[in-house]
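Quarterly update from the structural biology core.
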Amino acid sequence: MSTFQAVAVTRLYRMIADQIAGRIRAGDFPRGRRLPSERDLAEQLQVSRASIREALIALEIEGYVEVRVGTGVFVTDTVNASAAATTASDNTAARGDDIGPFDLLEARLIIEPECAGMAAQHATPSQLAAIRNAHDGMSLTEAPGRHDREFHGAIAAACGNAALAASVAHLWNLTMSSSVYRRMQDYFVDARVWAVAHAEHQRILTAVLARDPIRARHAMHAHLLGILARLREDFGDVSNHRGDL
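Predicted structure, tokenized:
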């Protein structure tokens, strides 16, 4: 009796990365030369610049390109041999669970503002203290990412809905396991950006402590939109504008 083969879910950014990698292997993009801009690639492939950004980061991780912040993205002089030998289908299978950063953030944008609003309404005194402590404990120089997760996790835990809290925890687990997200943070998140995030957290905390669900939702929504905007900074511009985030 014949059996079906498992069907892999191919991420859009992965399909884009595979196309660009194929063009690099074919010599269409010469080694050492700059790739077309994100805008040009997005227009040619008829996709969003966010998807192009994710694809370029994935290609850098695989050794096809080098990101030079403030300048652009260049084909490596010597394409990583193992990367060049890997087929598109192998790439997809290897990173099938690596959901793109912008998909993850958009999912958080749907869920976390509501969690903040519900936390403002339902949090117990001990849960409010946990949210405040997570915010107060955030160091801008030592493991800020861990404190960031603790703050968002404390708000989700205080929303009064176990399914929503579990969903937020799962999204954070997916985020932390995403090699593309981690690399993107390396380029676009520094101490100044963490300081902005900390100030955004303060507005969320103030609204939750005031038991103001509308303001809490708006503050969380604005915070997550800010993260999306910071990660969408153009590679060629980030060195000039990063301090303004």
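Residues 101-122 form the longest helix (22 residues).
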